[in-house]
Amino acid sequence: MDNKINLSFEEMWVKIMACDQTYDGLFFTAVKTTKIYCRPSCKSRKPKKINVEFYDDIQMVESAGYRACKRCQPEVEHSPHTQLIKKVTAYLINEYKQQLTLQDIANHVGISPYHLERLFKQETGETPRTYLEKVRIDKAVYFLKNTSYTNLEICYEAGFQSPSNFYKVFRHLKHCSPSEYRTQDQ
């Protein structure tokens, strides 16, 4: 399947705790105790971590015996473009380290760059570039909290081409520098 993403359990856990709709449709949260599955953005009460399983395919989660949440309706496609957007977002999440142009992304899904940007913005409220920056900052945050990499190593590990752009985007999205972020909550 084209839409498979490579996120660790911990990364997916962070997404569901934040009700992050960025990852809707790319993975599903299944709760063993209730036998219900949800979108990452579901606003329902969060389960205990030990009761959670993640699935990246709706058929797999349903064949494992889970039923769809009535609140977030993960089984309902909300738009005719949902599959295309899933394909684009999965590509961005998996290829975040690459130097991607709009043309590269458009080639991956087989439509023109102009059409891709217009559809993506219509469906997600942002451009593929800003989405990719969010994915990269998510990775940077993960590295800041879980590794001893330097900020410069994190900059390149997260797919940024220059430290100045990394710091600018990080500050814009997190309202602090990477170093300030690393020392929070410790």
From TrEMBL:
Gene3D superfamilies to which the protein is assigned, alphabetical: DNA Methylphosphotriester Repair Domain, Homeodomain-like
Transmembrane segments: none
Keyword annotations of the record: Activator, DNA-binding, Methyltransferase, Transcription, Transcription regulation, Transferase
InterPro entries, per the entry: Ada-like_dom_sf, Ada_DNA_repair_Zn-bd, Homeodomain-like_sf, HTH_AraC, Me-P-triester_DNA_alkyl-Trfase
GO molecular function: methyltransferase activity
Domain HTH araC/xylS-type: 86-184
A single GO BP: methylation
Name by which UniProt lists this protein: Methylphosphotriester-DNA--protein-cysteine methyltransferase family protein
Required co-factors: Zn(2+)
Superkingdom of source: Bacteria
Natural source organism: Lysinibacillus agricola
PANTHER family per record: ARAC-FAMILY TRANSCRIPTIONAL REGULATOR, HTH-TYPE TRANSCRIPTIONAL REGULATOR EXSA
